[in-house]
Design brief:
With 256 residues, the chain is mainly β. It has helices at residues 17-25, 47-57, 118-122; strands at 5-8, 10-11, 28-34, 41-46, 64-67, 75-84, 91-99, 105-114, 126-129, 133-138, 147-150, 159-161, 172-173, 180-185.
Length: 256
């Protein structure tokens, strides 16, 4: 079995939100250790020490040995869950799962893509990762830090499934055999949407086209004459009085 990481822990007697807030104020993280053969145990760990341990884990599946100041025996465990504040990213709570050296247990192990895909290198393909971790069952001594997935021969349109992953000694994959893990797909074509061309509008001061499609000639004052058959009066000519409306009486002659 690989040498586990060491984490110093302490028992916490009090529980509840107020107690947890006091712990965090003292730069400690509330934690709980639970297992198959023991009752849940409430613990706390120092925040700086846990931060250093998490950097050592670096996304691998590793076992952690819990060192208690009041006990000679050391519990073997792995990180089941880390709760963090969504705003401050501060650690809120840790769930640790105890394991026995001679007993198989279940854990999620991250996958690691190995090699350069043929489809990416020669066919302009793109790798798509279907899952980032696989559920496995094994003894603590057989736990792999990651599961390698070789994509060297993967071409565009092909997929590597759980059943095609190289077996690891002492490890049983628990995910469905047909579960896609990595695929090489064609790149998505970029769609360019052109903006509609605005209809041409007459320039300021220009005459608008008439209904028959002809542009009226400008009048003497520079303004366009009205469209249609109406004619502008001749320059300098006498203007005739408008005709009397139908049915109207003629005007009486002026008295002398």
């Amino acid at each position: 079995m690989k040498t586990p990481l060491i984490l110093n822990v302490a028992t916490r007697a009090q529980t509840g939100r107020s107690s947890s807030r006091r712990l965090r104020k003292d730069n400690r993280i509330p934690a709980i250790l639970y297992g198959k053969h023991s009752n849940p145990e409430k613990l706390s760990v120092e925040t700086p020490e846990f931060t250093r341990l998490l950097k050592s884990v670096a996304g691998r599946a590793v076992l952690i040995e819990l060192k208690h100041p009041d006990r000679a025996d050391k519990a073997l465990s792995f990180l089941q869950e880390i709760q963090r504040d969504p705003i401050t990213d501060r650690y809120l709570h840790l769930d640790l799962h105890e394991v026995k050296p001679d007993e198989k247990f279940e854990i999620r192990v991250p996958i690691r893509v190995v090699g350069e895909s043929f489809g990416v290198k020669n066919q302009s393909g793109v790798l798509e990762i279907g899952v980032h971790a696989l559920r496995v069952r094994c003894l603590p001594g057989d736990l792999p830090e990651s599961i390698d997935v070789d994509v060297t021969e993967l071409k565009v349109g092909e997929t590597i499934k759980v059943s095609q992953i190289k077996t690891v000694s002492g490890v049983v994959f628990l995910d469905d055999a047909g579960q896609p893990v990595v695929a090489c797909v064609e790149p998505v074509a970029e769609v360019v949407i052109e903006a509609p061309t605005a209809a041409a509008t007459p320039a300021e001061g220009a005459a608008a086209p008439a209904a028959d499609g002809k542009t009226p000639a400008p009048a003497a004052d520079g303004k366009a004459a009205p469209a249609g058959d109406a004619k502008a009066p001749a320059a300098g000519g006498d203007k005739k009085a408008p005709a009397a409306a139908a049915g109207a009486k003629p005007a009486s002659p002026a008295k002398k």
